[in-house]
Amino acid sequence: xxxxxxxxxxxxxxxxxxxxxxxxxxxxxxxxxxxxxxxxxxxxxxxxxxxxxxxxxxxxxxxxxxxxxxxxxxxxxxxxxxxxxxxxxxxxxxxxxxxxxxxxxxxxxxxxxxxxxxxxxxxxxxxxxxxxxxxxxxxxxxxxxxxxxxxxxxxxxxxxxxxxxxxxxxxxxxxxxxxxxxxxxxxxxxxxxxxxxxxxxxxxxxxxxxxxxxxxxxxxxxxxxxxxxxxxxxxxxxxxxxxxxxxxxxxxxxxxxxxxxxxxxxxxxxxxxxxxxxxxxxxxxxxxxxxxxxxxxxxxxxxxxxxxxxxxxxxxxxxxxxxxxxxxxxxxxxxxxxxxxxxxxxxxxxxxxxxxxxxxxxxxxxxxxxxxxxxxxxxxxxxxxxxxxxxxxxxxxxxxxxxxxxxxxxxxxxxxxx
Length: 418
Prior knowledge:
Elements: H1 2-14, H2 20-34, H3 37-44, H4 47-68, E1 71-77, H5 78-81, E2 87-93, E3 96-101, E4 116-121, E5 124-135, E6 141-143, E7 146-149, H6 161-164, E8 168-171, E9 176-179, E10 185-192, H7 201-218, E11 226-229, H8 234-243, E12 250-253, E13 258-267, E14 271-272, H9 278-283, E15 295-296, H10 298-311, E16 321-325, H11 341-350, E17 354-356, H12 363-371, E18 373-379, E19 395-399, H13 409-417
Parallel strand pairs: 1-7, 10-11, 10-13, 11-12, 16-17, 16-18, 18-19
Antiparallel strand pairs: 1-9, 2-5, 3-4, 5-6, 5-13, 6-7, 8-9, 14-15
Helix pairs in contact: 2-4, 7-10
């Protein structure tokens, strides 16, 4: 709600405040949105009036924003736009097919045997757009009346952070996106690190940070600033600063804020995972994702491991470490913690494991801990993303609850790429 309110306030100041009618309605709208529930009940006597008050006064503002003064763009995939002028591509890695093995499961019914399978890795390219617009908290590039989306994106399946806060409005049935036409920021040239779910640690490390390192590895863009999402947590911004060894300037972009660049540098997704399920968010339906929807580029993840080695050089005579990633129920607001974690920790401690909690460690400490890991045991969760820093051949034992909707493909595909 905080992000949506900030977005509404900024839009009012820059666009709606020009009109007398909206300046007159402002006190009523602010009251409808911010008035405490009990105060409204005392004034009007029943909750239905508050609901009507909220929708009939605030909804027209959003309606005008998206339908009347807002931008409308037809959704297309990158492959559908390649032939258009104003786009230059540079091939970084050709497409390839790799063999990946599924993990071995214990206490899984019915038993699952580890079977090798083929994993497609599409070509990895650097994209250079002329006179294009990007929007905070999205992966879309708006140009020529089109919202150009990554080939992996499926509007009917994927629900983005920008939609959650009202930054954009996706209409899957019509194949279009509605967005704000508030005055865009303008830049001569910039590297786009905006993303559908950049504020999530796992998504950031595999989908956003990898873009920067792919562009840096190619060379020729060291002087360009980086566009990053303003809503990204501070601890993740610290990681970006540590990996930004080329000294790029960093420009934060508010969610839903359009930014128009004379020269925009982007890449095809080095990795991709749907941010949220549209079926679940809109209808409460759980839909099992196919395994190949979670894609990780081995080359790009290797660049992260390589840059981490530059940031924290390896210690002399370093020996392999056994790590257990602690997950305290009091520190995380979900049910992923192991219920008998103290018993598990005591067994692992006697077996020579070091118990660490990555949430309380700096990025340099995390790199140093995982660099020489030979065995990692962890409850399934975002902390496992730090295996990016571990050496190839590291063995991983992940602990997960058994239930019918459990989906292990995300971590399985990441481990295969690493």
